[in-house]
Design brief:
heterodimer, A: alpha/beta, 8-stranded parallel beta sheet, 8 strands, B: alpha/beta, 6-stranded mixed beta sheet, 39% helix, EC 4.1.2.4 (chain A), lyase (chain A), DeoC (chain A), DeoC/FbaB/LacD_aldolase (chain A)
């Protein structure tokens, strides 16, 4: 890292863990030394917590909390400025007929759309997030990833979502992945960095845990499951492991880092299962948009419909929410 | 700071179809027992649930005679395929009435509805299905050409899994052609009497199943009755020893499934978060009222602090309260007597210098509740490391090497179960061979299946229930 970027450099690795990242070998030892994950056990826990019965006031609270945690996303090749503006409008007023509906956390777009989103969301408090670093495959050079990040940040993005180099990770080149995350974090400046692990491509729960710690060590503000372009995307057991990682990170360092499951969460029922996991695995203090997000484009409408059902006492149907 | 307060999600108690009076079931009919009626209470509220007629010594005699008549009449001579039909029918009826049974079980026993609904009742049905499948295959099961039933089985079951223990006892007995006289526990007789209704619904021939509620004296009458050919008992070691003395010198066959003080052994290379889940499940499942509960945690010293820290956090998230609430993790202690016993042992832990930690969770004021408790710095010489507490109390000990783990795990008069947590497969196999326990779980705990034999070593009893081995206990081979 050069002296010129050091002012906005990633925060130093917290003292208790500084040895873990000293060199290639120690990083490797640290990651491979993390406790293993038993597949049967974690899936059982996830299924068990998934049966929590959330109703009445707790459900209303959960729906509003979930809405406030949504990163409303459009990531299509066919995105237009009009589409982004429409999405921004929905982010600010998710349910125009119910003004007490909370706004969402952020709008997530490609870097070239950041300026439009920033303009449309000015003064609303809704953040603009941008997927940089050669999203979704990330198969491009470090220079281009950094440039991509710079484009998003310069255009005013508050949050950057980067994808890790899964190829390097699976090859065991952990230090390369670590340094890349650090470099992007430095390029983010004041913007928050969400590190997408693309857990569907990491294949094992052990890898999910290692990648989570790698991202946390490198300074990621959030760890995020997926781009949404690879199946499987977010799953409850994977999210459990990531929530456990930020919990353990907090215990060891005192720092609070966030988790974002993305892709495949479509229903209120599912979203509530994730909130229960946040509550019981990571802990109560993670139940805020600063520390937990949903990356979902279709979830919001179901949340809005269920919200109306709770408030009005009857179901209104998909024509009563906007399609943007 | 936001708080995610789960609104109460209680299951409707109306589903239990609770009646004011329940009666003993003899020879296919509900009869007025001549014993003193007992009142069964809801341990979560201390309210009386129902009055239950009990048997007297003469009722035991009537029931045994009815069972003998049914045995000699139709049941023992019936082709296995026909007996299987009754068992399948009973299994399906348990499934059909599963919600009713689950709610009733939680009311009477105090266990969380999620456990009675997802574990007890489905597993009880599974036992009938499994044993129904054996009924017509006994000649091919490797016992020889013509395995014969024993006759009338006297069965005495405990209060911790009332319907499930009934299923463990009745299903293999009927599958093999025996008839039964069963005594449910004094504090939890209700699901057994609904099971009697199910026997009627299934049109089981009269006398094949007889159910006699009552206290220990009725159990003793069953044990000493000359018309009984086999005794199957699940309960305390103390009573088990008394039964063994009573049966000694008679031709009666005996199986005993008694207490336990299982070691749950966690190595430094274990999948730690799942081990924590397994520890929690091992001791806090069913409020720790589990004879094979992992009540002694043996942790490798190198990770003891970390495990304790994680464990305390996890245990503090357990929700203690109304058993009928779907979000309750830990329900009520079954009786005031049991609660007093738990308190006594916990006090001994304090007195002997163990370091007590109790979950800060809210605990209801009424009813018999005990907050999940973890003792650290426990040593083999302490009472809480040696005696079965049968409550939500975990004793944590440490070890340094695999040999020491084996030595400490085996250093108990009991031997019902054990757990091993390590990612090293060879160590799992090596440990499993060293441990004197009827069941050894690896990287999991409290898993049950009708096909897996269950039973103990030493003071945990003898004989096996479940699987092909379990059938043998009801056959003359």
């Amino acid at each position: 890292m050069t002296a010129t970027t050091s002012t906005s450099a990633a925060p130093a690795t917290p003292a208790p863990l500084v040895d873990a990242t000293r060199d290639d070998a120690s990083l490797r030892r640290f990651l491979l030394g993390l406790p293993g994950v038993d597949q049967v056990g974690v899936e059982q826990r996830a299924a068990g917590l998934g049966t929590r019965s959330i109703k009445k006031d707790a459900k209303r609270w959960a729906i509003d909390t979930a809405i406030s945690m949504v990163d409303l996303t459009t990531l299509e090749g066919a995105d237009t400025h009009g589409k982004v503006r429409a999405l921004a409008a929905k982010a600010v007023r998710p349910d125009p007929e119910r003004q007490d509906t909370p706004r969402v956390a952020a709008v997530c777009v490609y870097p070239d759309m950041v300026a439009t989103a920033v303009e449309a969301l000015k003064g609303s408090g809704v953040h603009v997030a941008s997927v940089a670093t050669g999203f979704p495959a990330g198969r491009t050079s470090r220079e281009i990833k950094l440039a991509d990040t710079k484009i998003a940040v310069d255009a005013g993005a508050h949050e950057v979502d980067m994808v890790i180099d899964r190829g390097a990770f699976l090859e065991g080149r952990y230090m390369d992945v670590f340094e890349e995350i650090q470099a992007i974090k430095a390029a983010c400046g004041d913007a928050h960095l969400k590190v997408i692990l693309e857990t569907g491509e990491l294949a094992t729960y052990d890898n999910v845990r290692r990648a989570s710690w790698l991202a946390l060590l490198a300074g990621g503000d959030f760890i995020k499951t997926s781009t949404g372009k690879v199946s499987p995307a977010a799953t409850l057991p994977v999210t459990h492991i990531m929530l456990q990682a930020v919990h353990d990170w907090h215990v060891q360092t005192g720092e609070l880092r966030g988790v974002k499951p993305a892709g495949g969460i479509r229903t209120t029922k599912d979203a509530i299962k994730y909130l229960v996991a946040v509550h019981e695995v990571a802990g109560e203090q993670w139940l805020v948009p600063d520390l937990f997000r949903f990356g979902a484009s279709s979830l919001l409408n179901d949340l809005l419909l269920q919200r109306r059902t709770q408030v009005d006492g009857h179901y209104s149907g998909p024509d009563y929410v906007t399609v943007d | 700071m936001p708080v995610f307060e789960y609104a109460p999600a209680p299951e409707s108690r109306a589903i239990a179809n609770l009646k004011d009076h329940y009666k003993p079931f003899v020879d296919g009919e509900f009869v007025d027992g001549s014993g003193e009626p007992l009142k069964t209470i809801n341990p979560a509220t201390e309210e009386v649930l129902a009055e239950v007629g009990t048997a007297s010594k003469s009722d035991v005699d009537t029931a045994v005679k009815a069972a003998r008549k049914a045995y000699n009449g139709a049941w023992s001579k019936m082709p296995g395929t026909e007996r299987a039909k009754y068992l399948f029918r009973i299994a399906r009826l348990i499934q059909e009435r599963s919600r009713e049974l689950a709610v009733l079980e939680s009311l009477d026993n105090g266990k969380p509805i999620k456990e009675s609904r997802d574990s007890d009742i489905p597993t009880a049905a599974a036992h009938f299905f499994y044993h129904a499948g054996w009924a017509d295959k006994l000649e091919y099961a490797g016992y020889g050409a013509n395995p014969r039933p024993l006759g009338v089985a006297g069965q005495i079951i405990p209060w911790n899994f009332p319907l499930l223990m009934l299923a463990w006892k009745i299903a293999p007995a009927l599958a093999t052609g025996n008839t039964v006289v069963l005594k449910p526990a004094e504090t939890t007789p209700l699901t057994a009497l609904v099971f009697a209704e199910i026997c009627q619904q299934a049109e089981l021939p009269p006398g094949v199943v007889n159910i006699l509620p009552g206290a220990g004296d009725i159990g003793a009458s069953i044990v000493e009755h000359a018309g009984i050919d086999k005794i199957a008992f699940t309960g305390s070691t103390e009573v088990g020893k008394a039964i063994q003395r009573q049966v000694a010198g008679t031709p009666k066959k005996l199986t005993l499934e008694l207490g336990g003080k299982a070691a749950n052994i966690v190595f430094e290379d274990a999948p730690l978060d799942q081990a924590i889940e397994g520890i929690v499940n091992g001791i806090f499942f069913n409020q720790g009222h589990v004879c094979c509960a992992g009540s002694r945690l043996l942790v490798q010293e190198s990770i003891a602090e970390e495990v304790l820290e994680k464990l305390r956090y996890r245990v503090s998230t357990l929700r203690v309260g109304d058993p009928l609430d779907k979000n309750t993790d830990v329900g009520a202690i079954n009786s005031a007597e049991q609660l007093a016993k738990i308190r006594g042992l916990v006090e001994s832990g304090d007195a002997e210098g163990a370091q007590r930690w109790t979950s800060p969770c809210p605990v209801p004021e009424r009813g018999f509740f005990f907050a999940p408790t973890v003792f650290a710095n426990v040593h083999q010489s302490m009472r809480i490391a040696r005696e079965e507490i049968f409550g939500p109390v975990l004793s944590v000990l440490t070890f340094r090497t695999p040999d020491e783990a084996v030595a400490k795990a085996n250093n108990t008069p009991y031997g019902l179960s054990a757990g091993i947590w390590t990612e090293k497969g060879s160590r799992i196999l090596w440990m499993a061979n060293q441990l004197r326990a009827g069941v050894v779980w690896a990287n999991t705990f409290n898993r049950f299946d009708p096909a897996a034999p269950f039973g103990g070593y030493q003071e945990s009893g003898f004989g096996r229930e479940g699987g092909r081995t379990g059938l043998e206990a009801y056959l003359s081979v």
